[in-house]
């Protein structure tokens, strides 16, 4: 029941997101106040969902694991609870980073937020990979979802790094190099999105946003700064993670077995 509850919270959170939230149009744009309430509500719901999954992985499932059959669904695996905790946090961090971009926060800060999002996706993918033996079968769709989420977050971090280089450091050549790195990152998840029109649409929109930033860097490096494209992009900054699970406690009298 708790796993289903976490899934319901996550589904409610995703319903709060406006149609344009997966794609930022282009770095530094967007109405500062657009969708502020729904986005904040989405972050809260995702943090609550992460708290439910975290409770399952740390407390609920370990208490009843010995009583469960070996051949049990993935929803009753501790490793799946850990993976879903990271997924919900990564999604909450993505909304937080997107909102920071809407508010026209500093490009350096937004870059760090997207790096934090990327690391959360990577943590979820690593948890799933390290515990593959726990599963009878690992969902191919979940594996691809984690790969695409991580690639999009990293590409967005590189896009905002490019904007930071161009606008704040007068290094449009480095900015264009960061954009080219982001293009390469996006190409790695195109195959993972094969057969899913919604995933391909998000990747395509991100590629279009990225091209806007790349052309901006290209124009300024040629006509303003007279720079060549840097041989390599600057390193991404340290991650800044602003989300954590909201603690969950089952209703009084509900045991671990019932909650799990």
TrEMBL record:
InterPro entries: BRO1_sf (IPR038499), BROX (IPR038898). Signal peptide: none annotated. It comes from Chlamydomonas leiostraca. This is BRO1 domain-containing protein.
């Amino acid at each position: 029941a708790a796993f289903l509850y976490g899934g319901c919270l996550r589904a409610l959170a995703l319903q709060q997101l406006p149609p344009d939230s997966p794609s930022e149009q282009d770095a530094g744009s967007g109405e500062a106040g657009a969708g502020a309430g729904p986005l904040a509500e989405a972050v809260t719901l995702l943090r609550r969902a992460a708290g439910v999954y975290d409770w399952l992985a740390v407390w609920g499932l370990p208490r009843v694991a010995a009583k469960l059959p070996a051949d049990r669904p993935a929803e009753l695996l501790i490793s799946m609870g850990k993976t879903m905790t990271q997924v919900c946090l990564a999604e909450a961090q993505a909304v937080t980073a997107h909102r920071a971009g809407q508010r026209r926060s500093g490009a350096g800060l937004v870059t760090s937020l997207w790096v934090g999002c990327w690391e959360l996706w990577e943590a979820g993918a690593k948890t799933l990979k390290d515990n593959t033996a726990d599963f009878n079968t690992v969902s191919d769709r979940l594996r691809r979802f984690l790969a695409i989420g991580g690639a999009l977050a990293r590409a967005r971090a590189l896009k905002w790094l490019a904007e930071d280089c161009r606008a704040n450091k007068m290094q449009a050549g480095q900015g264009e190099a960061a954009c080219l790195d982001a293009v390469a990152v996006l190409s790695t998840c195109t195959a993972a999105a094969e057969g899913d029109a919604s995933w391909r649409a998000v990747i395509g929109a991100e590629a279009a946003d990225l091209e806007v930033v790349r052309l901006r860097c290209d124009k300024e490096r040629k006509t303003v700064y007279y720079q060549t494209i840097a041989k390599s992009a600057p390193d991404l900054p340290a991650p800044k993670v602003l989300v954590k699970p909201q603690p969950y406690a089952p209703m009084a009298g509900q045991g671990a077995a019932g909650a799990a």
